[in-house]
Amino acid sequence: MIPSVSSLPLRCWAEIDLAALERNLRLIRASLPPHIRYVAVVKADAYGHGIQQVAGRLMHAGADLFAVANITEASQLRELGPGWPILLLSPLLPEEDRYVAEYDFAATVSTPDEVTRLDAAGRAVGRALSIHLKVDTGMGRLGVWHEEARGLVEQITASANLRLAGIFTHFASPDDQAFTEEQRRRFLSALSSSGLDTLPPGRLFVHADNSAGIETMPATSPFNAVRVGLLQFGILPHSSSFLSQVQTETVFSFHTRVGIVKRLPSGSTVSYGRTRKLSRDTRIAVLCAGYGDGIPRSVSNRASVLIRGGRCPVLGRVTMDQTIVDVTEVPDVASGEEAVIVGKQGTDEISVGEFSRWADTIPWETLCSVTKRVPRVYRTALGT
Ligand SMILES: *Cc1c(COP(=O)(O)O)cnc(C)c1O
Questions:
Q1: Which residue range(s) make up the domain with 363?
Q2: Which residue from 42, 134, 168, 380 could staple onto 143, CB 3.0 to 4.6 Å apart?
């Protein structure tokens, strides 16, 4: 008999601590003024954590609105229950317009063409569709250029089948305070030139800040919502004294196990391309994970993993299914033993940030790169 996959031992897995996620949302909320609404960004399978599990927990924890990239992700949220407001952050393909109407999603609009199309989609179902207008204040991606916002607002107001539910912008370099302030100024002036600044507070979602923006949010302003992605997973977008005070916990950790342990003599080389020549007799462990699981090839000869609480450097190139590490300094490593790729073991921790620096990338990409071969194991205890 073929055993069911779920009963087989795990060779490489990600642990997702949903109780930590919930505590993070509550801490982030508590650090913000009470009128600020919480937009939970759960695109890209909730940054690889699993969209349904993450969104389910954030619904319980009190998120106000969910933001996803596309219709597929939005549908996965809709399956969790009707009623939750869902914002689509990416542009719609023309043939996707009708799903916005059918499933009651809110679309992001940047162009007159999108306004015309969505107004027609609303007319087809006989009800007004919610949209958020995006303003380009210097990101140079989506959004109407801030100096042209007024015309688009007029077009939206004149569209009988559209309801303006929000207006927002996105920061290009939130760690650059001067440019971020300039973007805020451009946004506020677009708001007033289009007459939206006189609406009753709370009538529209007015949002700009992602995780990194939060620390520069002015105490009083028309902004009444934040869009939180990375920070709710317990990872700081950059070193920030304000954000580190929030004391979020990392939700994600990445694990594998030792396949074999063996000795290689001094002078021999390790793995493809022979990029690593051993200068001493070495005990190596071959781990049961490689780039097919999301350990990028760029960490070859750079990363370390934790085994028995000790740091074991990666030797040579990461391969598709296996990664070789040096366990000479760690006594008694045996087949089957756990190795932590990202996370805590004993008193040591490899953070998503540290791992990302080894990979020459950013934490967002590290999280999105864990492949679908890797089962996500959910820890759901309420904890402390
Ligand atoms: C992904 C995204 C966010 C969340 O950003 P974090 O830095 O992960 O908090 C916010 N706004 C938009 C438009 C996004 O695309």
A1: 252-379
A2: 134
Q: Are residues 306 and 187 in the same domain?
A: no
Tens digit of each residue's pLDDT (9 = 90 or more) over 103-156: 999 999 999 999 999 999 999 999 999 999 999 999 999 999 999 999 999 999
Structure tokens at 100: 């916005």
Shared-domain flag, residues 60 and 188: yes
Q: Are residues 84 and 174 in the same domain?
A: yes
Instruction: Identify whether the C-beta of residue 115 lies closer than 8 Å to the C-beta of residue 162.
Output: yes
The verdict on residue 8 lying in a domain is no
Rg of the chain over all Cα atoms, to the nearest angstrom = 24
Q: What is the dihedral of CA 216, 222, 227, 231, to 10 degrees?
A: 30
Whether 125 contacts 84, CB under 8 Å:
no
122 lines ligand 1 (CB under 6 A): no
Judgement on whether residues 263 and 328 belong to the same structural domain of the protein: yes
Active centre residues (catalytic) = 43, 272
Domain co-membership, 272 together with 365:
yes
Q: Give per-10-residue mean pLDDT for the chain (384 aa).
A: 77 97 96 95 98 96 97 96 94 96 96 98 96 98 98 98 98 94 97 93 94 87 96 90 87 98 98 98 98 98 98 98 98 97 98 98 98 95 55
Q: Residue 314 forms beta bridges with which residues? A: 325
- To test the pocket of ligand 1, the residue of 41, 47, 132, 365 to mutate (highest count of ligand atoms within 8 Å of its CB) is 41
- Rounded-to-integer distance, Cα 80 and Cα 67, Å: 15
- CA of 126 relative to ligand 1 center, distance in Å: 32
Predicted TM-score (pTM) of the model is: 0.96
Please tell me the predicted confidence (pLDDT) of residue 2: 66
| Nearest residue to 229 via CA among 304, 312, 157, 171 | 171
Judgement on whether residues 88 and 162 belong to the same structural domain of the protein: yes
- 143 and 180 both lie in a single domain: yes
- Please report whether residue 336 resides in a domain: yes
Ligand 1 near 356 CB (within 6 A): no
CB 228 within 8 A of CB 38: yes
